[in-house]
């Protein structure tokens, strides 16, 4: 039996099994809190798929991704709550607007690398944080935007926690599939080449400037999509959600998960998102322990990130490969 | 017929003139070598030809079209591919993947088609991988197809870079010190490989310090010293050229 469990087969089977479990959850439970928590995981997984492309594969850092999530959330929230725009149109608008934001940010940032790109995107997040507060007529200021309607297509309304859970995870699975395909084909190879050696990529005929703007726009658009889904599934958004702190947490997820991997960051994303809600999954945890974890959440993720950088630079992905006994470092794809 | 023609090209860095009014031609189907002591301006000249640096004066024309102002990735698409003195491989990617990146300009799959893995994408991938296998065999690096570049021996790294450059389907291949760090056996393999590439109809311009290799494979040699062209001609004449001997002996006298 055991000889059938080669890493290759495991690598193919695990995502399928994970999907199966994900979509079985609504049949096993009707715990609203659990659905809410797992929906947050799904939303973050969508953002992480895009950020893994940008940071993990193309090697371009962004400390502004929370702002793109915010652009998607406010666009969708405002259009559906205040303008009565159909949900699907509002979601597309949020995605596109965030993508355009990423494109516009990428153009002046093309000359920047490493720390300087980090600073520029960090500045962008701060600017957007101010705008989310100050653009009161659209964003509702510090009080946030209330009464955002649930997702609906025509007369069909997705207004249950289980429905939203399935919607978000359905989108997450599609995004992950499309992302994994990109990684395996020409644009993904160009991204990994850019990460490996920009000179080498240029000498291979890759228009690195154009590639950077494309990946930035795509990654920001995916973050906007997650934001739009967040707005309609939670019904209320406020500026503090899309702060720099969230951007840093997202980067921590990719670092802990491992650069050049999709599965690693997704796993790290699930772990770090679930951390403050550990009581939803593990019954019987004391209230004091949960409160302690929630108070120290940022410190824990920061500490883990430092540990990973020092002792396991390849992150969870590298650990997984070591356990699986393969050295398929360059195999790309869904590792 | 002249494939590459360089006319009066110059490049200054601050007060230093790295390349000073250099002109020469590279004829189609030949191997031409560019030699000179350290700091003669060979690598700068390569950067000028491939768009990594902008010349301050002069012009480069390739197959009749001017290359002035073209950026590196555009130069590749016109048909000039290069390798680097310090290999610029993608360390985390396998040998085959490194060469596949070289197929980038001739492939079409964009983000949309790649994400959906359309039938056209799959067919293109298959064809590209087949050609990569052929190129790896051509340079003799096929046993490293699935090895991450970081784990490939030094000599093979140079061959991988040549295969990656060939993958862009160039008419002119520019090699920057391909024999640097190679042992004698590896250098001989390289010489065979260069002749095979030339026989496939690809013109080669090579910067090289290994005189054995230069005299062995090249039909014509250009000698640079302190940015200027001091000699040009077939290997036998260059070996006897007084100015060339002076330039090299002078260097040895300084560095001995």
Number of strands of chain A: 2
Distance between the termini of chain A: 23 Å
Largest β-sheet summary of chain B: 6 strands, mixed
Task: Based on the coordinates given, report the CATH architecture of the largest domain in chain B.
Answer: 3-Layer(aba) Sandwich
Largest β sheet strand count, sense and barrel closure of chain A: 2 strands, antiparallel
Shape descriptor of chain B reads globular
Mean pLDDT of chain A: 90
Radius of gyration of chain B: 19 Å
Q: What does this entry look like structurally?
A:
The complex is a heterodimer of chains A (335) and B (256). Chain A is 73% helix and 2% strand. With 335 residues, chain A is mainly α. Chain A has a domain at 37-142 and 157-243. Chain A has a two-stranded antiparallel ribbon. Chain A is globular. Chain A starts with 6 loop residues before the first helix and ends in an 11-residue tail after the last helix. The model of chain A is unreliable at 327-335 (pLDDT under 50). By secondary structure, chain B is α/β, with parallel strands linked by helices. Chain B has 2 domains: 1-79 and 171-256, Rossmann fold; 91-169, no CATH class. In chain B, α7 (184-199) links the parallel β7 and β8 (203-207). The longest helix of chain B is centred in the middle third of the chain and has 21 residues, at 119-139. Chain B is globular, with a radius of gyration of 19 Å.
């Amino acid at each position: 039996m055991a000889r059938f469990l080669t890493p290759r087969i495991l690598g193919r089977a695990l995502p399928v099994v994970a999907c199966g479990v994900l979509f079985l959850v609504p049949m096993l439970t009707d715990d609203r809190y659990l659905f809410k928590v797992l929906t947050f995981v799904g939303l973050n997984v969508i953002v992480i798929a895009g950020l893994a492309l940008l940071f993990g594969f193309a090697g371009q850092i962004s400390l502004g991704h929370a702002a793109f999530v915010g652009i998607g959330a406010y666009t969708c929230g405002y259009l559906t709550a205040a303008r009565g725009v159909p949900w699907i149109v509002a979601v597309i608008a949020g995605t596109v607007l965030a993508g355009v934001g990423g494109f516009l940010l990428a153009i002046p940032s093309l000359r920047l690398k490493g720390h300087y790109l980090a600073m520029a995107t960090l500045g962008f997040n701060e600017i957007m944080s101010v705008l989310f507060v100050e653009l009161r007529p659209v964003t509702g200021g510090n009080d946030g935007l209330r009464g955002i309607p649930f997702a609906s297509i025509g007369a069909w309304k997705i207004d249950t926690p289980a429905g939203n859970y399935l919607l978000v995870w359905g989108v997450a699975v599609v995004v992950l599939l499309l992302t994994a395909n990109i990684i395996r084909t020409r644009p993904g190879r160009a991204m990994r080449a850019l990460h490996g050696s920009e000179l080498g990529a240029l000498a291979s005929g890759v228009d690195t400037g154009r590639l950077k703007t494309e990946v930035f726009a795509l990654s920001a658009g995916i973050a906007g999509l997650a934001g739009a889904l967040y707005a309609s599934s939670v019904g209320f958004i406020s500026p503090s959600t899309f702060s720099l702190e969230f951007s840093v947490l997202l980067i921590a997820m990719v670092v802990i998960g491992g650069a050049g991997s999709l599965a690693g960051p997704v796993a790290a994303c699930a772990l770090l998102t679930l951390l403050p809600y550990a009581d939803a999954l593990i019954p019987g945890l004391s209230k004091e322990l949960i409160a302690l974890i929630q108070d120290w959440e940022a410190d824990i993720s920061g500490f883990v990130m430092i540990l990973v950088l020092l002792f396991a630079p390849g992150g969870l992905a590298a650990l997984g490969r070591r356990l699986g006994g393969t050295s398929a470092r360059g195999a790309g794809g869904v590792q | 017929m002249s494939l590459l023609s360089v006319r009066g090209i110059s490049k200054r860095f601050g007060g230093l003139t790295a390349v000073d009014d250099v002109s020469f031609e590279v004829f189609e189907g030949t191997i031409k070598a560019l030699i000179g002591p350290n700091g003669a301006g060979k690598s700068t000249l390569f950067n000028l030809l491939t768009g990594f640096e902008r010349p301050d004066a002069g012009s480069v024309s390739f197959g009749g079209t001017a290359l002035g102002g073209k950026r590196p990735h555009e130069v590749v698409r016109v048909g000039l591919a290069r390798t680097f003195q310090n290999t610029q491989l993608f360390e985390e990617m396998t040998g085959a993947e490194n060469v596949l990146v070289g197929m980038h300009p001739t492939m079409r799959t964009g983000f949309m088609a790649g994400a959906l893995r359309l039938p056209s994408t799959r067919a293109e991938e298959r064809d590209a991988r087949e050609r990569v296998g052929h190129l790896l065999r051509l340079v003799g690096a096929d046993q490293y197809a699935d090895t991450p570049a970081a784990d490939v021996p030094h000599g093979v790294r140079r061959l991988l870079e040549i295969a990656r450059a060939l993958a862009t389907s160039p008419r002119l291949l520019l090699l920057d010190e391909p024999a640097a760090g190679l042992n004698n056996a590896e250098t001989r393999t390289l010489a065979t490989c260069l002749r095979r590439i030339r026989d496939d109809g690809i013109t080669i311009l090579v910067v090289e310090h290994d005189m054995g290799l230069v005299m062995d494979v090249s039909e014509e040699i250009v000698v640079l010293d302190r940015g200027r062209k001091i000699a040009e001609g077939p290997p036998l004449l260059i070996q006897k050229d007084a100015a060339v001997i002076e330039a090299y002996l002078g260097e040895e006298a300084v560095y001995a």
